[in-house]
Amino acid sequence: MILFQNAALVDGLSDRPREGVHVLVEDGTIREVSDRPITASGARVVDLRGRTLMPGLIDCHVHVVAALPDLARNALLPDSLVAARAGGIMRDMLLRGFTTVRDVGGADWGLKVAQEEGAITGPRLVISGKALSQTGGHTDLRGRYDRRPTEYYTRRLGALGRIADGVPEVRRACREEIKEGADFIKVMANGGVASPTDPIAFLGFAREELAAAVEEATNAGTYVSAHLYTDSAIRRAVECGVHSLEHCNLIQPDTARFAAERGAVCVPTLVTYEALKEEGGSLGLPPDSVAKIDDVRLAGLHSLEVMREAGVRVAFGTDLLGAMHRHQSREFTIRGEVLPAQEIIASALGEAARLLRMEGKIGCVAPGAHADLIVVEGDPLRDLSVLTDPARLLAVMQAGRFVAERL
Ligand code: ZN
Ligand code: ZN
Questions:
Q1: Distance, CA 62 to ligand 2 centroid (Å)?
Q2: Which residues contact residue 126 at a Cβ distance below 8 angstroms, ignoring those fewer than 6 apart?
Q3: Measured between alpha carbons, how far is 286 from 297 in angstroms, rounded to an integer?
Q4: Residue 337 belongs to some domain of the structure
Q5: Residue 344 falls inside a structural domain
Q6: Same-domain status, 271 and 244
Q7: CA 54 to CA 376: how far, in whole Å?
Q8: Whole-angstrom Cα distance, residue 349 to residue 381?
Q9: Given the DSSP bridges, would you call strands 161-163 and 131-133 parallel, antiparallel or unpaired?
Q10: Dist. CA 1 → ligand 1 center (Å)
Q11: How remote is the CA of residue 234 from the centroid of ligand 1, in Å?
């Protein structure tokens, strides 16, 4: 048992810290939360006076197998090396305070189980398995003059996706991913940056293919997430029933309002374009991809304002690749240029938990939730850089166990 006393609680539900909070943790779970002192004999007492307690952070758009920015090369690495590197990427995420992440392409059920068993120290994983793409789409890594069938890479752990063309193949791919442990389905419904033959404006999949994926996901009690940039791609995806709208850099007000009406969720990932701009080329991102970065990067901050104005739900995502993963927490301060801190914090807590369908279990400090908690020095509601500075992250607890602690 661990008893936190006198904490200032920041959980995204209020624009001011809740002072003087006491939290009792037992058996990996939050047992009691009170504004009055809790008595618990035998508990280790940790006095957090002057410090901020928060739920563990949630990143809704990551690729834990992406150890190299060159995704074609990443897909050819031995599975053993990919798994080991994913373990390192996950450990670093956890040490940044992210206690749960949603992997939107690449991670398999094995990594998820390895984390649950403790063989990997990292965030809880919610996974899509392999992302689906049409031939020539965002996970077709072959380049212009390579006509090999794509099986040579699609079943490898280091591949973020697989190819499916036509309604029957899309249905089969969805069913296979769900059978193999996917928690939701990911589709590439628009061109992308880190792929060789799909300009940003390309639409990925026909409408009937998107609708088929949505039906398969719905049949399995889950939803579809789609990689999207352009306004027309986003509108079409929402019309087809897609729930989780990734990136959305070029979204326009009408479509944002339409997405809000349908209860869809946008997951911007602005930090990856900044990191790619700064470091992508030198880290091995191919020139075709470097040339596409500004097509989406320059619209990023404005897209946040469009989403806010439209009242669409927004969750926190990052989408970093390779060595650029170290910039993960910068997403907070980038969004802070145009959004209130409380909304950004909520996007990585309550909103994220809702998108992951784990409300009440993560992203909150409440009885019955997993004891996933972080302690920071300073008030992130006044200064978001509290969340980007490793020196101010004093403790990370996951399932009631400290994975890092300087209290
Ligand atoms: Zn994407
Ligand atoms: Zn992604």
A1: 6
A2: 100, 101, 102, 103, 183, 184, 356, 358
A3: 17
A4: no
A5: no
A6: yes
A7: 8
A8: 13
A9: parallel
A10: 41
A11: 13
Number of domains in the chain: 2
Q: How far is the CA of 286 from the centre of ligand 1 (A)?
A: 16
CA–centroid distance, residue 69 to ligand 1 (Å): 13
Tens of pLDDT along the chain (407 residues) come to 999 999 999 999 999 999 999 999 999 999 999 999 999 999 999 999 999 999 999 999 999 999 999 999 999 999 999 999 999 999 999 999 999 999 999 999 999 999 999 999 999 999 999 999 999 999 999 989 899 999 888 889 999 999 999 999 999 999 999 999 999 999 999 999 888 889 999 999 999 999 999 999 999 999 999 999 999 999 999 999 999 999 999 999 999 999 999 999 999 999 999 999 999 989 988 888 888 899 899 999 999 999 999 999 999 999 999 999 999 999 999 999 999 999 999 999 999 999 999 999 999 999 999 999 999 999 999 999 999 999 999 999 999 999 999 99
Structural domain that includes position 260 = 57-328
Q: Could you say which DSSP state residue 357 is in?
A: T
Distance (Å) from CA 81 to ligand 1 centroid: 24
Same-domain pairing of 289 and 307: yes
Name, in order, each residue with C-beta under 8 angstroms of 18's C-beta and a sequence gap of 6 or more: 8, 9, 10, 11, 35
Rounded distance between C-alpha atoms, residue 294 and residue 387, angstroms: 27
Q: What angle do CA 263, 268, 272 make, to 5 degrees?
A: 160
By CB atoms closer than 10 A (0-12, 13-18, 19+), residue 359 is middle
Distance 247 CA to ligand 1 centre (A): 7
Residue 350 falls inside a structural domain = no
- CA-based max dimension of the chain: 70
In a domain, 290, yes or no: yes
Pair (100, 231) in one structural domain: yes
Query: 145 and 215 share a domain?
Result: yes
Instruction: Give how far the C-alpha of residue 33 lies from the chain's centroid of Cα atoms, to the nearest Å.
Output: 28
Tell me how far the alpha carbon of residue 228 lies from the centroid of ligand 2, in angstroms.
10
Q: Are residues 137 and 62 in the same domain?
A: yes
Nearest-angstrom CA–CA distance, 111 and 400 = 21
> Distance from the CA of 33 to the center of ligand 2, in angstroms?
36
- CATH code assigned at 149: 3.20.20.140
